[in-house]
Amino acid sequence: MKNELLLNDTQNDKRFENVMWEGRFQPMHKGHLSYIRLLLKLGKNVWITVNANEISTNVFKDKESIQDIEFTETVDFHHQPEKNLFPFWLRYKMAVAAIHEEFGLDAPITIMSGRRLDLAWDLYKNIFPPNRVFITPLRDEFEDAKANAWEKQGEAVYRVNVSHLPEVSGTMVRAVSYTHLRAHETEADL
Predict the structure, then answer these.
(1) Stated pTM of the model
(2) For 67-83, how does the pLDDT look when each residue is reduced to its tens digit (9 = 90+)?
(3) C-alpha–C-alpha distance, residues 96 and 175, integer Å
């Protein structure tokens, strides 16, 4: 695989200056925190962007304004209201709290928030740090699409195998939370 990183590829003196990662974090969970731990091994500074819940048609009136329409349509699927139960402000707050609790306030992690990267790429090119690389997991077609999109924008992209990390997703966490909540409601009805 092109640009695949192995965990022993980077030692402390050869780590990337700035590692970028973005997502919805619906909600932030132990899989995300494990991945951030991995990113800290690969980079001196980790930049995390919590993306807003938005659909491209709510931002752009015409598709010609979108830089990578194929990717944006792929992302739109993941930003549908039924897949995004937590509001933007709450996801940002939960991500900040979870990251600070897990890594402390002194960890070299910057947490940003804002519009989806594919809908504001010109803005992000100006506010992201120089000497940056995007590291995306080797996990699924969606992560493949992200890596391809960032490469099309001229960004340095590396892939990393995450098969050793916990298998968890926001969908799984939400399902377990909902089941747990329903069980408590049923007990209260008795």
Answers:
(1) 0.83
(2) 888 888 889 888 888 88
(3) 23
